[in-house]
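Long-time lurker, first post. I've been practising inverse folding by hand and with some scripts of my own, and I keep getting stuck on stretches where the structure tokens seem ambiguous. Below is the full token string for one chain I'm working on. Before anyone asks, I'm not after the true native sequence, just a reasonable design that respects the backbone. If someone could post their per-position residues I'd love to compare against what I wrote down in my notebook.
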């Protein structure tokens, strides 16, 4: 990966020389082939650490539709034909900071951590969003204990708005505003 390795020192998935992530938005004709990866993502204890915990695999197998992720604002992050994660853009509800604004969310399988895929995929989703809704800000919230998420938020250009308590832990909330391009 152009000299980069993960914090664990492993080689990039599939020994790719560099990022080759495609973000695809719903609906996608081949979402059903990713069902097992969606189950793996939500059942992973490592992924669940900062998002309320992993869900039992058998529960996910029963509850997950045959074609998962059939909704606007959900991007499958694909590397060489295999799902490695997802990025979401959803409207915040009235009870949360940033209410009514679009919120960026993402989850990646542990095997994809540390290679820049989340940064690349989130930047692509933000670029898509800025093209669809120019000038509209996006919010992001994460636990302050999630240092990787805080670094990614800064790298993407989010600035801190507030800190608050929720889910038994301190949370960080930031906002991203698309770049303003002067009329030419």
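-- Answer (accepted) --
I ran through it position by position. Result:
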């Amino acid at each position: 990966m152009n000299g980069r390795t993960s914090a664990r020192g492993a080689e990039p998935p599939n020994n790719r020389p560099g990022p080759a992530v495609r973000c695809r938005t719903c609906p996608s004709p081949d979402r059903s082939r990713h069902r097992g990866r969606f189950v793996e993502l939500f059942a992973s204890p490592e992924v669940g650490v900062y998002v309320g915990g992993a869900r039992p695999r058998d529960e996910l197998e029963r509850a997950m539709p045959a074609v998962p992720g059939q909704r606007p604002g959900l991007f499958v992050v694909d590397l060489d034909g295999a799902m490695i994660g997802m990025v979401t853009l959803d409207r915040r509800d009235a009870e949360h900071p940033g209410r009514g604004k679009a919120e960026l969310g993402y989850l990646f399988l542990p095997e994809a951590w540390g290679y820049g895929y989340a940064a690349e995929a989130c930047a692509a989703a933000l670029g898509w969003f800025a093209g669809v809704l120019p000038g509209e800000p996006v919010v992001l919230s994460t636990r302050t204990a999630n240092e990787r998420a805080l670094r990614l938020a800064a790298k993407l250009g989010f600035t801190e708005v507030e800190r608050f308590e929720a889910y038994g832990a301190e949370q960080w909330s930031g906002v991203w505003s698309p770049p303003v391009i002067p009329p030419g």
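A couple of notes from the structure itself: The two ends are 37 Å apart (CA to CA). DSSP finds five helices and seven strands in the chain. Happy to go over any region you disagree with.
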